[in-house]
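Tutorial, part two.
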Amino acid sequence: MSDPRIRALHPVRSALPEDEAGLGELDRATWSTLHAVQPRPRPPYEPFFGDRRPPGDHLVVEASTDQGALLAGYIRLGRPTPLACNAHVRQIQGLAVAGWARRRGLGRTLLRACAERARDEGAGRLTLRVLGHNTAARALYEAEGFAVEGVLPGEFFLHGRYVDDVLMGRSLTV
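Running the prediction step on this input gives:
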């Protein structure tokens, strides 16, 4: 797809079942060795939504463009475990912004909307995992109040080298 001209950004909203095709396309278009631990997706593609990834776990942002309304980004918020003793924690389990929509603050907007949703759900902590070499994502997370809480050195062997898994978190009560 050519880079569409953005005319307006829409407010962040919950994903709907009818967003599945667009989100799947966005997810495949943004696949990168900076964040992916799975191989590049190949047809036939898995459904974007599933039992462990329902539409309600996703927040999306759309843009009005010269090509119509397009999904510009998403963030997935889930529980890290099903345990009651861990119910106060939410985890970011995916974040993507279309290449044509980057450098407009959408990642930051999605992170803030995600934190607000987590608070509304009664969470007191928000966590995520990021690959050590993804310095741009780590800088964004740090700017939004996340701190490194642990590092699993060489946790993944990706593209011929070992890569750290960085665990980050932040309080939602401050």
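The CA atoms of residues 42 and 50 lie 18 Å apart. In part three we will examine how such features are distributed along the chain.
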